[in-house]
Amino acid sequence: MADGSTTDPMALKTLSSEELAWRSSEGCQASFGQLVERYAPRLLCFLKRRTSSIHDAEDLVQDTFVKALENIDKYHRMWRFSTWLFTIAARLATSHYRKRQPACELSKRGPNTMCPSLMLLRQEERQSIWSRAMELPENQYRVLWLKYAENMSVREIARVMGKSRANIKVLLYRSRMTLAERLQDQIVDETRMDRRHTKQESHRMKSESA
Amino acid sequence: MFCRFFRMMISHAADADGALGHMTQRHIRRCHNCRRFCESCQTLGDALRAEATDLSRGCELLTERITGSLTDVGI
């Protein structure tokens, strides 16, 4: 465990996010740097669902950290740091989308209008279950991310999203139902394709042997 | 009609990573679709957790950019 004055990156890695936040509020820049390292990629995944370019999502992540550092004195230890940080991110994202709607709505844009870097990113993720989750409505994607990537409870997710617990439970239910159905369809399609391929192969072998 | 209710129960149990109630357990023993949904919830959860770890791996360029921006705004 690091002592109160250490700025050794290795020692900082062992501290909890809440301890790092407390040290940041005492003016330790290295501790905040550690929080940035820990949360930036996770916030990016949380925010990129609805942005038209990866740069927009990165800008939002950056704004989240600027706001977090400006308000680090207001962070209360009764909440997990991640809950507090994701609440800031969700609020910033909401106001960002409100300003830029409907230009940023991915769902209303054709696939060819997507920025190349995001297209590349999406292509890399095509096989991933999270890429299927990204096809869900934004709120459903976000509750899934907070539940399974951030391990938040329903209560914490409700706080981040600014919704009731009952609402979050319904969103989780819908996201599971839709995702399960889509993955089931995918499995059925793949099985059909496999069968077709096997049929073609056996037909080809038969005709070769004949 | 009852399936919708029991799927909600299955989903609520997954929310809390908790156990299924007796009535729900009895229902899924009889209902193939709800049993499949219950299995999906479990496998989906495991897969989403596992893949999230890969997706949230460090991103040095972004971290540097943010750290730089914090210095630029003089915080």
Give a verbal description of the structure:
The complex is a heterodimer of chains A (210) and B (75). By secondary structure, chain A is an all-alpha fold. Chain A has helices at 9-13, 17-25, 29-47, 54-70, 81-100, 116-124, 129-133, 138-149, 154-161, 165-209. In chain A, helix 3 crosses helix 8, helix 5 (81-100) packs parallel to helix 9 and helix 9 crosses helix 10 (165-209). Chain A is elongated and about 80 Å long. With 75 residues, chain B is mainly α. Chain B is 80% helix and 0% strand. Chain B contains four helices and no strands. Chain B is elongated, with a radius of gyration of 21 Å. The A-B interface holds A 32-33, 36-37, 40-42, 44-45, 58, 61-62, 65-66, 69-70, 125, 128-130, 133, 144-145, 147-149, 153-154, 169, 172-173, 176-177, 179-180, 183-184 and B 7-8, 11-12, 14-16, 36-37, 40-41, 44-45, 47-49, 51-52, 55-59, 62-63, 65-67, 69-70, 73, 75.
**Rg calc of chain B:** 21 Å
* Main sheet overview of chain B: none
- The Cα radius of gyration of chain A reads 22 Å
- Content-based structural category of chain A: mainly alpha
Shape of chain B: elongated
Order of helices and strands of chain B: HHHH
Helix-residue proportion of chain B: over 70%
Beta-strand content estimate of chain A: under 5%
Kindly report the average pLDDT value of chain A.
80
